[in-house]
What does this fold into?
Amino acid sequence: MSILQAAYRVCKSIRSLPVREEVKGLIHNLSFGSLAEGTQSRSYRELGFLGKNASIQFLGYLVVNQKGDVLEDLPYQTKIGSLSPDELSLLERTHRFILQIDKNCCDYLGAVLPNAVDAIDPYLQHDYKFQRVPDKGISLNLESIGNLCAAFEQHPSLRIIREHLTPRNNIRQIPKERLSCVVLTIVSRIDSYGLFDEPPDLQQLEITVKKNSQRYHVGKILTALVALKTSLSILNQLLYQAFLYDKLAVLNQENVFQIGKHSRSFLGESISVSSQLLNHEIFSNAGGMVLIKLPLNNHKIDGLYRIERNDVSVSADFGNSMKLGLRRIDNDLNCYPGLTPDG
Amino acid sequence: MKKGEKDKVSEKLKEIFAEDPDSEQWQMILHFGYLSNIEKFFKERKIQVDDKGFLETISGSIMQAQEYFNASKVASLHTSPLLLYYGVSNLMLGISSLMIGSSLTIENHGMRLELNKEGSGRIADVEIRPFGSETGALSQFCKAFYKGTVFPCGDNWTILEILGSIPELKPDFENCYPDAQSYTIPVQIVRRDNDYLERINPINIERFENRTGVFAEIENFRNCYLLPETSLEEKYIILRRKIGGREIGVYSVSGQKFLQISHVKGNHCITLPTIIYMYMGLFAFGHLSRYHPERWSPFVRSDSTGEKQLIEKFIDTSRRYLPNLALNHLHQKRIRFVNNTQGALDLSNTMEEELKEMIQQELRVLLNKKRGGSGK
It folds into this structure.
């Protein structure tokens, strides 16, 4: 079973959790305001807006809630509301739930390269201190979690790491903070090149660097860690969306009117698509996951994609539309398959 | 539509320089008044024609068509509809024979007039009843111009419906019959850099009873367009073509696009090409003038409602545009006669502001790369 299939099964299990309706209701209130006494206010919705746009799932709301005072000092920032104790408790529970799944999926890496576990943590940059003592966790079907962890053990990044952990390789000696910083730098560098371009030095690793050199082995491990980090980040987003929505947003013949640039590069596949505005219930922020199902004759673009960019246009003269920049996600939940080529 | 891809309209549009469009279009049609040109036309399409009588039918029809058209120009409304109807019948016989490659079996008009004796007295209330699906001219011409669809017979059409289906008449039609529903909706095409859309002014669908459901009455609309969207302040109704959606609608002689509302006849929803609507309308007026002078003559002499003016416009429009439509069907292109300067391409308009914006955007991307971008 691929990681993607295993992730879908976990998402399906999430949809039948009793706590899901509570979580869904809370996030909906944060987004659109609530009729409940004392909660409907602009500042409350400001928390919801900032939390959602942080693109780090439930942690976004928690961080904004915790650092509201600091954020309010920023220029042009309006007042930010606070979560009630029950709301805080609920969101921390769901965030812990995701953290636990991440931890289970990283067990194998922890055994092979312990100082790299933090490096692949999608939430590493965010310093959040839990404020509530966990009273009860969220229990999920053990079989689906087990399948997901087993699938993650087959992630190509782990194969690459095993292959390149040679006796001469000193990557195990690199402090975890430094290793995390390097992985983050590579991620930032990829981001800075945008959707249709890529850092030339990543491809150079395969072409010009001597295959037996220390530099090559370390380079391969670092890029494999980037891919693994990406897969975890995408997994977290899928789990988050499973709490909030019954299905993934679909870009298809009923909403897409233009396909822009479509590129297959060293890193992976990217595409630009213009569509009518999707229903507000369907997640369409940067970092969100969407499916494409378009029966095109010339090339197949159907699949799961991560939204890298969403430019929304609202105009009385030209109507409403959004232009999405998307990266394709493969069966390993990786949108940079070029970093984990087959051996 | 894919970015960079021309929309199918511009690919099918053929602009021909003409100082006098009417004269130019007849030059193109009269090309088929010569047997050798007809033979060459069939040879190019690998159609074997041995029957010289068939070739003479095409040639003769086209030559006669022109003479009837010319005669109708100088006749008054007492006889011009009949002359024009004969001209159009001949023209459509010739052109459809060219399109199909074989002779048509026509034994009658394929329709008859039904005067509503108890009606309002409006010419618009006169009805046309199609019949004879195999040998009627209407059915036979539909095979050529209506993509082979058999015309359903039995239900009546009013002249009002026919006139309301002709795009060029829309403003005059709505002015003459304020309570009547038109069967065409004008659409504005908007082309921007990397974008194409169509939009409708909401005023143009105010007359429809079911404004929200009017698009459901357009044949193939849902196969070709996404759900219509009302823009901010209800300024426009925005239409976006689906990926792979083909173009629907018709164009008037001015190049304005129109979407056509279907007519419900029995169990069928029918949308006819404009050439057929014009043919049916000319049959009605020709037949009225020829066989019902007791109705037609007083109408022409002393109409005070304004209907006469509308019908005159219909006659003039048909005279000018029906041959153009026939050529469009024959050549499978939208032929537009223009008076632009030929042989020159003006690239001097560099869209300075747009270029500046594009350069600024590229610079921002480069600077962002240099700074290392934002981390995730």
About this structure: The longest strand of chain B covers residues 184-192. The interface with chain A takes residues 1-3, 190, 192, 194-197, 199, 226-227, 229, 231-233, 235-236, 238, 240-244, 365, 368-369, 371-376 of chain B (CB under 8 Å).
